[in-house]
Specification:
With 256 residues, the protein is of the alpha/beta class. Helices cover 38% and strands 25% of the residues.
Length: 256
């Protein structure tokens, strides 16, 4: 099915306690109008900047381009009466998108919910959905995300023999400073924050270089090699940056 993109709602909330909503961009992915009707039917939900994309089972070029160019804060995807193939859209979205991801389904299956969370969903809702409950779930996810971001920005990140100080952008290995470029620091920070998880090249190009990976460019690989060399020379022994063939990179604490 060909996709189409349309603005569902882009209005400022009238209530002062919802001022932050107007700064949050939501993307609805669906094959019918269930999600958009739910959003439009709730005055509190309509304050978000909401865009709808109708698409088939996979991610086409139009949707990929939208994700890279617009960077929504949250995606709500309706997988309908799903099967294992349909669920893989979550995996495909996670290759390009690291924000909040909510899955809506017609199927109340425990196994499907487990599979959805394993693939990267942050929440799972079964139809029919009360719009008030949907609003509260969305607000709760944004609230937890904001709390986590604030804690990460203020705190040091320590993993094995590496310690990062995000506020000053300094890296320490066994208490000794290792000089990194801004890109190298942000790359290492992203790897540590997602330690034990594979970060795809699509994801890293999108979040760090702000462009889509074209499948042949070697910029990230070269910089990853330079980062590894600096960490090794600096004395890193308790951690490892693994190249997962055909998928991306993963940060390990090898002493855990």
């Amino acid at each position: 099915m060909a996709s189409s993109i349309e603005l569902v709602e882009n209005t400022q909330s009238l209530e002062t306690n919802n001022d932050n909503q107007s700064q949050q961009k939501l993307l609805l992915i669906e094959n019918d109008h269930y999600l958009s009707k739910t959003f439009l039917g709730n005055r509190n939900l309509s304050g978000y900047q909401t865009t709808k994309i109708r698409t088939g089972e996979g991610l086409n070029e139009e949707l990929k381009s939208y994700l890279v160019g617009n960077r929504p804060n949250m995606i709500v995807v309706d997988i309908g009466f799903s099967d294992s193939a349909q669920l893989l859209i979550i995996r495909d979205l996670r290759a390009l998108f690291d924000g909040l991801l909510v899955v809506v389904s017609n199927t109340n299956s425990e196994q499907e919910q487990l599979d959805a969370f394993k693939l990267g969903a942050d929440d799972y809702l079964c139809k029919p959905i009360d719009s008030r409950i949907l609003m509260m779930r969305i607000e709760a996810l944004f609230r937890r995300q904001n709390n986590t971001v604030n804690q990460v920005e203020l705190a040091s990140l320590t993993m094995g023999d590496i310690c990062l100080q995000p506020k000053s952008q300094r890296c320490f290995i066994n208490s000794e400073v290792v000089k990194l470029t801004t890109f190298e620091f942000n790359l290492l920070k992203s790897l540590i924050e997602h330690q034990g998880k594979i970060l795809s090249r699509d994801h890293l190009y999108n979040t760090l270089l702000k462009r889509a990976y074209n499948g042949v460019e070697r910029t990230l690989d070269v910089r990853m090699s330079q980062l590894r060399e600096k960490l090794t020379v600096g004395g890193m022994k308790n951690n490892q940056i693994e190249t997962v063939w055909g998928q991306g990179y993963m940060f390990h604490n090898i002493t855990a």
